[in-house]
Design brief:
Layout (H helix, E strand, L loop, with lengths): L1 H10 L3 E5 L3 E8 L15 E5 L1 H11 L3 E5 L1 E2 L3 H13 L7 E2 L6 E8 L5 E6 L8 H4 L2 H8 L3 E4 L5 H13 L3 E5 L9 H6 L2 E5 H8 L14 H11 L3 E5 L5 E5 L8 E4 L12 H14 L4 H16 L11 H8 L1
Helix pairs in contact: 2-10, 10-11
Length: 329
Protein backbone atom coordinates (compact mmCIF):
# COMPACT_ATOMS: atom_id res chain seq x y z
CA UNK A 1 0.00 0.00 0.00
CA UNK A 2 2.78 2.43 0.95
CA UNK A 3 4.75 2.10 -2.28
CA UNK A 4 1.68 2.42 -4.51
CA UNK A 5 0.39 5.40 -2.52
CA UNK A 6 3.67 7.27 -2.78
CA UNK A 7 3.87 6.41 -6.47
CA UNK A 8 0.41 7.93 -7.00
CA UNK A 9 1.48 11.08 -5.16
CA UNK A 10 4.53 11.41 -7.38
CA UNK A 11 2.46 10.97 -10.54
CA UNK A 12 -0.20 13.54 -9.61
CA UNK A 13 -0.09 16.88 -11.43
CA UNK A 14 -2.30 18.54 -8.81
CA UNK A 15 -0.54 21.25 -6.84
CA UNK A 16 -0.05 21.78 -3.11
CA UNK A 17 0.15 25.40 -1.92
CA UNK A 18 1.68 26.26 1.44
CA UNK A 19 1.45 29.74 2.97
CA UNK A 20 3.55 30.52 6.03
CA UNK A 21 6.86 30.39 7.81
CA UNK A 22 10.49 29.60 7.01
CA UNK A 23 13.07 29.56 9.82
CA UNK A 24 16.72 28.84 10.44
CA UNK A 25 16.79 26.34 13.32
CA UNK A 26 19.69 26.86 15.76
CA UNK A 27 19.90 23.40 17.28
CA UNK A 28 21.83 21.90 20.21
CA UNK A 29 21.64 18.31 21.48
CA UNK A 30 21.92 17.81 25.26
CA UNK A 31 21.90 14.75 27.51
CA UNK A 32 18.61 16.05 28.87
CA UNK A 33 16.42 19.12 28.58
CA UNK A 34 17.28 21.82 31.17
CA UNK A 35 14.91 22.69 34.00
CA UNK A 36 13.97 26.38 34.46
CA UNK A 37 17.04 28.37 35.56
CA UNK A 38 19.39 25.45 34.87
CA UNK A 39 22.36 25.21 32.50
CA UNK A 40 23.32 21.91 30.87
CA UNK A 41 26.14 21.04 28.49
CA UNK A 42 25.30 20.41 24.85
CA UNK A 43 26.73 19.52 21.47
CA UNK A 44 28.13 21.90 18.87
CA UNK A 45 25.57 24.34 17.50
CA UNK A 46 24.04 23.35 14.16
CA UNK A 47 22.01 25.63 11.89
CA UNK A 48 19.34 23.67 10.03
CA UNK A 49 16.48 24.69 7.71
CA UNK A 50 13.06 24.79 9.37
CA UNK A 51 9.87 26.73 9.93
CA UNK A 52 6.60 24.81 10.16
CA UNK A 53 5.35 25.82 6.72
CA UNK A 54 8.74 25.37 5.07
CA UNK A 55 8.99 21.95 6.67
CA UNK A 56 5.55 20.97 5.40
CA UNK A 57 6.39 22.12 1.88
CA UNK A 58 9.69 20.20 1.82
CA UNK A 59 8.10 17.06 3.24
CA UNK A 60 5.43 17.07 0.53
CA UNK A 61 7.91 17.84 -2.25
CA UNK A 62 10.42 15.17 -1.21
CA UNK A 63 7.82 12.42 -1.58
CA UNK A 64 7.01 13.68 -5.07
CA UNK A 65 4.24 16.27 -4.73
CA UNK A 66 4.05 19.42 -6.86
CA UNK A 67 4.49 22.14 -4.20
CA UNK A 68 4.57 25.94 -4.24
CA UNK A 69 5.60 27.95 -1.17
CA UNK A 70 4.36 31.43 -0.22
CA UNK A 71 5.96 33.48 2.55
CA UNK A 72 8.80 35.88 3.30
CA UNK A 73 12.53 35.71 3.99
CA UNK A 74 14.80 38.52 5.11
CA UNK A 75 17.92 40.04 3.58
CA UNK A 76 20.41 38.00 5.65
CA UNK A 77 22.50 34.93 4.80
CA UNK A 78 19.80 32.68 6.26
CA UNK A 79 17.47 33.83 3.47
CA UNK A 80 19.72 32.29 0.81
CA UNK A 81 20.14 29.17 2.94
CA UNK A 82 16.38 28.69 3.33
CA UNK A 83 15.53 29.34 -0.31
CA UNK A 84 18.29 27.03 -1.56
CA UNK A 85 17.05 24.24 0.70
CA UNK A 86 13.46 24.60 -0.50
CA UNK A 87 14.53 24.64 -4.14
CA UNK A 88 16.79 21.62 -3.67
CA UNK A 89 13.78 19.68 -2.39
CA UNK A 90 11.79 20.65 -5.48
CA UNK A 91 9.62 23.41 -3.97
CA UNK A 92 8.61 26.31 -6.25
CA UNK A 93 9.83 29.50 -4.49
CA UNK A 94 9.16 32.08 -7.23
CA UNK A 95 6.44 33.90 -5.25
CA UNK A 96 8.34 34.12 -1.94
CA UNK A 97 8.80 37.70 -0.75
CA UNK A 98 12.30 39.08 0.01
CA UNK A 99 12.17 41.77 2.73
CA UNK A 100 15.09 44.20 2.93
CA UNK A 101 16.53 45.17 6.32
CA UNK A 102 14.84 42.31 8.17
CA UNK A 103 16.26 39.04 9.51
CA UNK A 104 14.72 35.77 8.42
CA UNK A 105 12.70 33.79 10.95
CA UNK A 106 14.66 31.68 13.45
CA UNK A 107 14.19 29.16 16.24
CA UNK A 108 16.38 28.01 19.10
CA UNK A 109 15.95 24.26 19.68
CA UNK A 110 17.26 21.99 22.43
CA UNK A 111 17.02 18.25 21.74
CA UNK A 112 17.11 15.50 24.39
CA UNK A 113 19.74 13.02 23.15
CA UNK A 114 18.11 10.09 24.95
CA UNK A 115 14.44 10.40 24.00
CA UNK A 116 14.51 12.78 21.04
CA UNK A 117 12.10 15.24 22.69
CA UNK A 118 12.74 18.96 22.27
CA UNK A 119 12.03 22.51 23.42
CA UNK A 120 11.63 25.32 20.85
CA UNK A 121 11.67 29.13 21.05
CA UNK A 122 10.49 30.98 17.94
CA UNK A 123 11.55 34.43 16.62
CA UNK A 124 9.24 35.41 13.69
CA UNK A 125 11.55 37.84 11.87
CA UNK A 126 10.48 38.12 8.23
CA UNK A 127 7.58 35.72 8.81
CA UNK A 128 5.75 38.63 10.45
CA UNK A 129 5.91 40.42 7.08
CA UNK A 130 3.69 37.86 5.35
CA UNK A 131 0.87 40.40 5.09
CA UNK A 132 -2.68 40.42 3.78
CA UNK A 133 -1.46 42.79 1.05
CA UNK A 134 1.14 40.25 -0.08
CA UNK A 135 -1.28 37.33 -0.10
CA UNK A 136 -3.87 39.45 -1.96
CA UNK A 137 -1.59 40.32 -4.90
CA UNK A 138 -3.12 39.10 -8.14
CA UNK A 139 -0.29 36.73 -9.03
CA UNK A 140 -0.20 35.21 -5.53
CA UNK A 141 -3.99 34.83 -5.41
CA UNK A 142 -4.02 33.23 -8.83
CA UNK A 143 -1.35 30.73 -7.82
CA UNK A 144 -3.19 29.78 -4.61
CA UNK A 145 -6.47 29.39 -6.47
CA UNK A 146 -4.78 27.06 -8.96
CA UNK A 147 -3.83 24.58 -6.23
CA UNK A 148 -5.83 21.54 -5.13
CA UNK A 149 -5.09 21.98 -1.44
CA UNK A 150 -3.69 24.77 0.76
CA UNK A 151 -1.69 24.19 3.95
CA UNK A 152 -1.75 26.77 6.73
CA UNK A 153 -0.28 27.04 10.22
CA UNK A 154 -0.13 29.89 12.72
CA UNK A 155 3.50 31.06 12.52
CA UNK A 156 2.24 33.85 10.24
CA UNK A 157 -0.04 36.76 11.25
CA UNK A 158 -3.58 35.54 11.95
CA UNK A 159 -5.16 38.05 9.57
CA UNK A 160 -2.96 36.74 6.74
CA UNK A 161 -3.78 33.12 7.50
CA UNK A 162 -7.48 34.00 7.47
CA UNK A 163 -7.17 35.92 4.20
CA UNK A 164 -5.38 32.99 2.56
CA UNK A 165 -8.07 30.59 3.75
CA UNK A 166 -10.80 32.86 2.33
CA UNK A 167 -9.06 33.13 -1.04
CA UNK A 168 -8.64 29.36 -1.30
CA UNK A 169 -12.10 28.49 0.00
CA UNK A 170 -13.79 30.85 -2.47
CA UNK A 171 -11.94 29.10 -5.29
CA UNK A 172 -12.94 25.62 -4.12
CA UNK A 173 -9.47 24.76 -2.85
CA UNK A 174 -9.39 22.42 0.16
CA UNK A 175 -7.80 24.14 3.20
CA UNK A 176 -5.90 22.14 5.84
CA UNK A 177 -5.28 24.23 8.98
CA UNK A 178 -2.65 23.21 11.52
CA UNK A 179 -3.48 25.01 14.79
CA UNK A 180 0.17 25.39 15.72
CA UNK A 181 1.59 27.30 17.49
CA UNK A 182 -1.62 26.58 19.36
CA UNK A 183 -4.33 29.23 19.70
CA UNK A 184 -7.17 28.42 22.10
CA UNK A 185 -9.72 30.62 20.27
CA UNK A 186 -9.62 30.50 16.48
CA UNK A 187 -11.32 33.36 14.61
CA UNK A 188 -14.77 32.37 13.38
CA UNK A 189 -13.93 33.58 9.86
CA UNK A 190 -10.93 31.26 9.73
CA UNK A 191 -12.98 28.27 10.93
CA UNK A 192 -15.62 28.95 8.28
CA UNK A 193 -13.05 28.98 5.48
CA UNK A 194 -10.92 26.01 6.58
CA UNK A 195 -11.87 22.49 5.48
CA UNK A 196 -9.84 20.27 7.84
CA UNK A 197 -8.21 20.86 11.22
CA UNK A 198 -4.96 19.24 12.36
CA UNK A 199 -4.15 19.27 16.09
CA UNK A 200 -2.59 17.00 18.69
CA UNK A 201 -4.65 15.40 21.44
CA UNK A 202 -3.90 18.06 24.07
CA UNK A 203 -4.65 20.90 21.67
CA UNK A 204 -7.93 19.23 20.72
CA UNK A 205 -9.00 18.98 24.36
CA UNK A 206 -8.15 22.64 25.03
CA UNK A 207 -9.79 23.88 21.85
CA UNK A 208 -13.02 21.95 22.34
CA UNK A 209 -12.99 22.38 26.14
CA UNK A 210 -13.35 18.67 26.79
CA UNK A 211 -11.54 16.69 29.47
CA UNK A 212 -8.54 14.53 28.70
CA UNK A 213 -8.57 10.95 30.08
CA UNK A 214 -7.29 11.04 33.65
CA UNK A 215 -5.11 7.99 33.12
CA UNK A 216 -3.78 9.30 29.80
CA UNK A 217 -5.33 6.34 27.97
CA UNK A 218 -6.64 7.73 24.68
CA UNK A 219 -7.66 4.22 23.53
CA UNK A 220 -10.77 4.38 25.72
CA UNK A 221 -11.50 8.04 24.99
CA UNK A 222 -14.97 8.87 23.61
CA UNK A 223 -13.87 9.78 20.10
CA UNK A 224 -17.45 9.76 18.77
CA UNK A 225 -18.26 12.55 21.19
CA UNK A 226 -15.09 14.37 20.12
CA UNK A 227 -16.27 14.18 16.49
CA UNK A 228 -19.62 15.64 17.51
CA UNK A 229 -18.06 18.49 19.50
CA UNK A 230 -15.58 19.16 16.70
CA UNK A 231 -18.54 19.44 14.30
CA UNK A 232 -20.26 21.89 16.64
CA UNK A 233 -17.04 23.91 16.81
CA UNK A 234 -17.02 24.18 13.03
CA UNK A 235 -14.96 21.31 11.57
CA UNK A 236 -16.57 18.22 10.08
CA UNK A 237 -13.12 16.77 9.34
CA UNK A 238 -10.09 16.74 11.63
CA UNK A 239 -6.92 14.78 12.31
CA UNK A 240 -5.80 14.40 15.93
CA UNK A 241 -2.20 13.26 16.28
CA UNK A 242 -1.21 11.14 19.28
CA UNK A 243 2.58 11.23 18.98
CA UNK A 244 4.04 7.74 19.18
CA UNK A 245 0.50 6.30 19.49
CA UNK A 246 -0.56 7.22 15.97
CA UNK A 247 -3.49 9.45 15.10
CA UNK A 248 -7.28 9.61 14.90
CA UNK A 249 -9.26 10.87 11.92
CA UNK A 250 -12.62 12.46 12.75
CA UNK A 251 -15.15 12.70 9.91
CA UNK A 252 -18.55 13.74 11.24
CA UNK A 253 -20.20 13.58 7.81
CA UNK A 254 -18.60 10.30 6.69
CA UNK A 255 -20.79 8.66 4.04
CA UNK A 256 -19.95 5.18 5.31
CA UNK A 257 -20.88 6.15 8.88
CA UNK A 258 -17.34 5.74 10.18
CA UNK A 259 -16.96 9.02 12.05
CA UNK A 260 -13.79 7.82 13.80
CA UNK A 261 -10.83 6.03 12.19
CA UNK A 262 -7.84 5.09 14.35
CA UNK A 263 -4.50 5.16 12.51
CA UNK A 264 -1.91 2.87 14.06
CA UNK A 265 1.65 4.16 14.58
CA UNK A 266 4.86 2.92 12.99
CA UNK A 267 7.32 2.02 15.75
CA UNK A 268 10.85 3.38 15.27
CA UNK A 269 13.78 4.34 17.47
CA UNK A 270 13.43 8.14 17.67
CA UNK A 271 16.57 10.23 17.29
CA UNK A 272 14.93 13.67 17.10
CA UNK A 273 11.21 14.45 16.87
CA UNK A 274 11.76 18.03 15.63
CA UNK A 275 9.60 18.56 12.54
CA UNK A 276 7.85 15.18 12.66
CA UNK A 277 4.44 16.82 12.98
CA UNK A 278 5.26 18.95 9.94
CA UNK A 279 6.32 15.86 7.99
CA UNK A 280 2.94 14.37 8.88
CA UNK A 281 1.04 17.43 7.68
CA UNK A 282 3.09 17.81 4.51
CA UNK A 283 2.30 14.21 3.61
CA UNK A 284 -1.41 14.68 4.31
CA UNK A 285 -1.36 17.70 1.98
CA UNK A 286 0.42 15.70 -0.74
CA UNK A 287 -1.94 12.73 -0.43
CA UNK A 288 -5.08 14.89 -0.42
CA UNK A 289 -3.88 16.63 -3.58
CA UNK A 290 -3.39 13.21 -5.18
CA UNK A 291 -6.99 12.26 -4.45
CA UNK A 292 -6.69 10.16 -1.31
CA UNK A 293 -9.25 10.31 1.49
CA UNK A 294 -8.30 11.97 4.77
CA UNK A 295 -7.92 8.60 6.53
CA UNK A 296 -5.76 7.23 3.70
CA UNK A 297 -3.66 10.41 3.76
CA UNK A 298 -3.09 10.10 7.51
CA UNK A 299 -2.05 6.47 7.08
CA UNK A 300 0.64 7.38 4.54
CA UNK A 301 1.71 10.31 6.76
CA UNK A 302 2.34 7.90 9.64
CA UNK A 303 5.18 6.26 7.70
CA UNK A 304 6.72 9.51 6.47
CA UNK A 305 6.70 11.16 9.91
CA UNK A 306 8.09 8.00 11.55
CA UNK A 307 10.95 8.04 9.05
CA UNK A 308 11.65 11.66 10.00
CA UNK A 309 11.94 10.71 13.68
CA UNK A 310 14.90 8.48 12.85
CA UNK A 311 17.01 11.43 11.62
CA UNK A 312 18.34 14.66 13.08
CA UNK A 313 16.68 18.03 12.47
CA UNK A 314 13.47 18.81 10.62
CA UNK A 315 13.91 19.08 6.84
CA UNK A 316 17.29 17.36 7.05
CA UNK A 317 15.55 14.21 8.38
CA UNK A 318 12.88 13.97 5.68
CA UNK A 319 13.10 11.13 3.22
CA UNK A 320 12.23 10.70 -0.43
CA UNK A 321 9.48 8.29 -1.42
CA UNK A 322 12.09 5.65 -2.21
CA UNK A 323 13.85 6.07 1.15
CA UNK A 324 10.59 5.80 3.10
CA UNK A 325 9.52 2.69 1.19
CA UNK A 326 12.90 1.02 1.76
CA UNK A 327 12.73 1.76 5.49
CA UNK A 328 9.32 0.16 6.02
CA UNK A 329 8.79 -2.39 3.28
Amino acid sequence: MLASALEKIGESSNRVAVVGSMNADYTIVADRLPNPGETVNGSDLRVLPGGKSGNQAVSAAKIGANVQMFGAVGSDENAKFLLNTLESAGVDTCKILRVEGVKSGATVITVDAKGGENTIVYAPGSNAKVSVEYISQDDVKQAICGASVLGLCLESPMETVTAAAKIAHAAGVKVLLNNSPFVSELPRELIENASILLVNEHEMAQLLKISEPEDGNWDDFDWDNAARVMHEYGFDEAVVTLGAKGSVVLDYAAQDGKKVVRICPQRVKAVDTTGCGDAFMGTVLAALAAGFSLAQSAQVATYVSAYAAMGFGAQSSYGSAQQVVRAFE
